[in-house]
Amino acid sequence: MLRIPRTTPRTGTPRQKAPRRLRTAFLASAASVCLIAASAPAPPPLGIGDRLFPHLGNPGYDVTSYDLSFIYPGSNSKPLPAVTTIVARTTDWLEQVNLDYSHGTVRSVEVNGEPAEFRSSGEDLVVTPAEPLLPGVRMRITVHHDSNPVSTKDQDSGWVRTEDGLAMANQADAGHRVFPSNDHPSDKALFTIRVTAPNGYTAVANGLPLGVNRRDAATTWTYRTEHPMATELAQVSIGRSSVLHRSGPDGLPVRDVVPTKDREALEPWLKKTPDQIDWMQEKVGDYPFETYGLLIAEARTGFELETQTLSLFEKELFTRPEYPKWYVEAIMVHELAHQWFGDSVSPRTWSDLWLNEGHATWYEALYAEEKADKPMEARMRAAYRASDTWRATGGPPAAPKGAAPGEKLSIFRPNVYDGSALVLYALREEIGRRSFEQLERTWVSIHHDGVADTADFTRLASGIAARDLSGFFEAWLYGEKTPPMPGHPDWRSEKPAEKPAKPKR
Predict the structure, then answer these.
(1) Exposed/middle/buried for 73, CB within 10 Å: 0-12, 13-18, 19+?
(2) In percent, how much of the chain has pLDDT > 90?
(3) Are strands 345-347 and 450-452 parallel, antiparallel or unpaired?
(4) Distance between CA atoms of 156 and 46, rounded to whole angstroms?
(5) Contact 86, 66 (CB under 8 A)
(6) Pairing relation of β-strands 218-224 and 80-90?
(7) What is the pLDDT of residues 147-161, one digit of tens each?
(8) Per-residue pLDDT averaged across 333-346, rounded?
(9) With contact defined as beta carbons under 8 Å apart, do 231 and 308 qualify?
């Protein structure tokens, strides 16, 4: 994800990611969700103990696939009737199954074809199968529900309401406000997505199309991913759109989704994608998925988002005259780089977010250096000056502070962007360009389609450098103060401004 500032960018000035009204969402009350007898006690939401989002995810099972079906009613202010089918394998004895879900009415639940009791508990949908589930068995849960695109006072929706329809923005804590799920990036799964909409609309989702079925006044589109995906990366676009096709490197299918009325105006930007993919492949290896493209939405979000195989962009990014050409292209590369860093290799915990955003920012800056003569060193020196302030306000890169109350997106602070790219710059200075480039290619290769964390990166870097780098990473990723920059002893970080003392009463 990347926040777009509303002022003209300047070389070397670090950007921040969205404090986010951005892409997220969601919840329904127990009364609207549950039909189970009131005498049954509701267990607390389990969660898997993620430091930043402790309520997300659920132990006891591993999801292998999602099948999502949505019916768009022709208005983006009305709930979408939906069916979510989850296939998973149990890892523990389960008398109840918790799903993350909190922003839509649930009508019925089945487990392995049998009706199941259900109720809400916080942001969980608690399902009680007719019989307890043994460890190591296949489990199929089908939930008939509504998916609400309208935000409430207490919850934003993971749907983004556009001028002509809907798109999705589920990072970091919003996928479960669109569909029931195990909403944590550590549990990736394959997705099949079906969308039915009135004729005149076009629906596109992650992955490749399986078919189009036109009946009377409505059309159903079906898409399927060929690689596992985190719930936060799911994407569905519904609008009066055109789908534009072109070939990428080695025949990779590239498809862009744009408002039909803007297709000619946006084409000069869209045609840059194949060369950008080729540039990234030269840096880190083959593109990791079955397709790629841009979803350009007519909506004000304040951010761009790396949804898998179909990155979400505001149309405004490409139409505002104050944005220099090099800047827009660098942002396109930021979201493209996420397909390797964050999508193919997903974070094991949200504290590992620096591995996503630091790398995307790194390749954004490297592209600007190579293609637009915007020196990486100047940008990193500016980041170094600000780094101590970023650490004081947001925490060090690999131990970011939690979100501010009521602002779940506030984990996307400067230190997970340029502050984390600064760590990568220091690492390249420490181990040398050749070892650094080998590390990058090896990282995305050995963790392809998987999850990884900071400890994995530390071990791999130490192995490639043939020396223990644990001390280096401990200082750069967890220290309160920014360590000296290797090779640049003259660089200085500005002292954080002290907060003014509160007046005495």
Answers:
(1) middle
(2) 82
(3) parallel
(4) 22
(5) yes
(6) unpaired
(7) 999 988 777 889 999
(8) 98
(9) no
How is residue 12 written in tokens?
């070397």
Q: Is 358 helix (H, G, I), strand (E, B) or coil?
A: helix
Amino acid type, 75: S
pLDDT tens, position by position, 396-423:
999 999 877 666 667 888 999 999 999 9
Nearest-Å Rg of the Cα atoms of the chain is 23
Q: Which residue has the tokens 């996503």?
A: 356
Tokens coding 463:
């192995």
Per-residue pLDDT, 501:
44
Gap between the Cα atoms of 424 and 410, Å rounded: 23
Yes or no: say if 361 and 418 are a contact pair by the CB < 8 Å rule: yes
Closest to 133 measured CA to CA, from 150, 111, 148, 115: 111
- Given a contact cutoff of 8 angstroms between Cβ atoms, the answer to whether 24 and 169 are in contact is yes
pLDDT digits (tens, 9 = 90+) for 271-329: 999 999 999 999 999 999 999 999 999 998 888 999 999 999 999 999 999 999 999 99
Residues 6+ apart with CB under 8 A from 290: 207, 208, 225, 226, 227, 253, 309
